[in-house]
Design goal:
binds pyridoxal-5'-phosphate, alpha/beta, 8-stranded mixed beta sheet
Length: about 375
Amino acid sequence: MSASGNVSGVAAAGGILTIGVETVVANWKSLAARVAPARSAAVVKADAYGLGAVPLVRPLYDAGCRDFFVIALSEAEAFRPLLPSDAAIYVLNGLLPGTAAAYGDGILPVLNSLAQCRAWAEARRGSRPSVIQVDTGMSRLGLDVAEQQALASDPGLLSATGARLIMSHLACADEPDKPASGEQLAAFGAARERLPGLPGSLAASSGIFLGADYHFDLCRPGASLYGIETSPLATGIKSVVDLRVRVAQLREIEAGTSVGYGYTFRASRTTRLATLATGYADGWWRRFSNGAGAAYFGDTRLPSIGRVSMDSFSVDVSALPAGTLAEGDLLELIGPHQSVDDVARAVGTIGYEVLTALGHRYHRIYR
Ligand SMILES: *Cc1c(COP(=O)(O)O)cnc(C)c1O
């Protein structure tokens, strides 16, 4: 399956982004096996971290996934029709004011405050389920301890929310040496004692690798499905993304000639360079300028020179014999020589940000 299917679409694209659907499914299966007998959800927010939720949710369902997490109601609505009725989609950002009536069947709000619990209890027309999120230290979303106590002291309200899961989120699970995760685990246990009888969910990708104490009834991996190594403890995650970009132009410049905006690179010798058809508008970071980033031709690293522009950047191809490259050739930006995590390290960010930044001008192929 490809985004536009026609050969001219491929030929005209400045880059080709290949997404391994089977690898996403394999990563999900390996995590599901690791956390069993707990269940594993799939977090497909932000359009499956930029890779495209629509092509991924049905293969994940067919592999056994029944629980899908997004941030916004609109994201849930985009793929709800693709899933059978026994799948549930959870909206993490909570019940925004005035939206209760808009929740269709099989879409559950995550209730993040007492006010949201009340609003849902009033609007849910009897039987619609929900999830309760408690804050265990991150101070982002969820009921604080006082609100948990208030909810616990109002059994009528609790039952009227239709809560079928209690969840929280770990702030430091990717740093196993910090005491924070243990403290959050204890706080989650206390919240579950206050609001007993509900299945629990605490771990995202990194939390899964902290061990079975963190798995409860449902785990919520996102990044690890998409090939990001989120934690030093992570194992068995296969990379999913391959990005090739085209050589838009080849040229040779003399010593003393400058390259790119701001003339931040000046050649000290005769240099052959390739201008590549991708830039920061495509998620290829401006911080990749001047040697911070590279493309690969086979095993040969081709360092960036000059600044990354919005739509292009240049690499030094002097290491390749003259005539090796032609305009229209594809060079590797993400693939066997340079993972998403390598790219992230090179620009001082995390793989999550690299993936979600990848732009929409690439021709996408789902395999
Ligand atoms: C994004 C998110 C996840 C998934 O996190 P990963 O680190 O990508 O696995 C799980 N739970 C919540 C509440 C999230 O916001």
